[in-house]
Amino acid sequence: MGASDAFLLDAYSTTVSGVVEAVGPSVAAVRVRFDAAPDQGGGGSGFVFTPDGYLLTNSHVVRAGQRDTGKRPAAAYQVSFSDGHVAGAHWVGDDPDTDLAVLQVDGSTRHLTATAPLGRSSTLRPGEIAIAIGNPLGFEQTVTAGIVSALGRSMRASTGRLIPDVIQTDAALNPGNSGGPLLNGRGEVIGVNTALIRGAQAICFAVAVDIAAWVIPQLLAHGEVRRAYLGVGGMTMPLSRRIVLSFGLEEQRGAVRVSSVERGSPAALAGLREGDVIVGLDGVTVDSVDKLHQSLDASRIGKDCVIKLLRGPVSPQAMYLTVTPTPRTR
Description:
Blueprint: H1 3-23, E1 27-34, E2 37-48, E3 54-57, H2 59-62, E4 75-80, E5 86-95, E6 100-105, E7 129-134, E8 142-156, E9 162-169, E10 181-183, E11 189-196, E12 204-208, H3 209-222, E13 228-229, E14 232-238, H4 241-246, E15 254-261, H5 266-270, E16 277-281, E17 284-285, H6 289-295, E18 305-311, E19 317-323, E20 326-327
Antiparallel strand pairs: 1-2, 1-4, 2-3, 3-6, 4-5, 5-6, 7-8, 7-10, 8-9, 9-12, 10-11, 11-12, 13-20, 14-15, 15-16, 16-17, 16-18, 18-19
């Protein structure tokens, strides 16, 4: 090893150890026990991001594999930190669609010597340092490091919805790392570790911190993320070249075919029918079910929205319907 290589290795080690020293005290092991079945539960990791003890983790950690019923989990939470402090915590809110949750540490937070600052994921570049701290397989305060392997990935949440802008990293993760922070070389949170591909080598994923920054205020205010509801079931379908040319959809290769319309839903009241093909919402292209989901955020609740669709199996006609989404309930 040359002198320059030794210098780089030493700089890398100094960076990683500095981040761990600064942020490690904010990382907690999270234990979950269900009221109805005290002998059952689970656990994972989390990190305190405010001085008053708010802790970010995964929704699948706070629910410990239990099915999302749309209700607050009937569970007790315990968190333990690197200094040996153990405390209870209470549920604040969670969003299974992005696999994020917020707890708050009970009692005094005077023992907390650090909080994990939230950074930005929009400015990340592949190849940047990525550092994970968590509690894999029960081994508390485990540190792994690597790089940001890729950006803009997507993965399915337990609800079936697509989580966009997921960060891929080769910083090793194992069961129990879920909910812990993924950090950059400045000690800022860039993601929340959430998944690994079993059987693969060094392919791990984290929910981008920019998604978390959008979710957290809604969890603090409402205990959930409010989304708009239409009441349609659908599937992504490709558009034929003939349809693309006939309706001026040159920038569009897909759409959403409506497979069902719930009785009394906003979609039914607006006149949507089974077999309709949705191609746009308020002038925004809808080329997949995932794009339709992403378009139905809280800003559209109670607001008249214009759906562009094609109707008719043989000679489809372009139509515009006005629909007023209602709040979605899980």
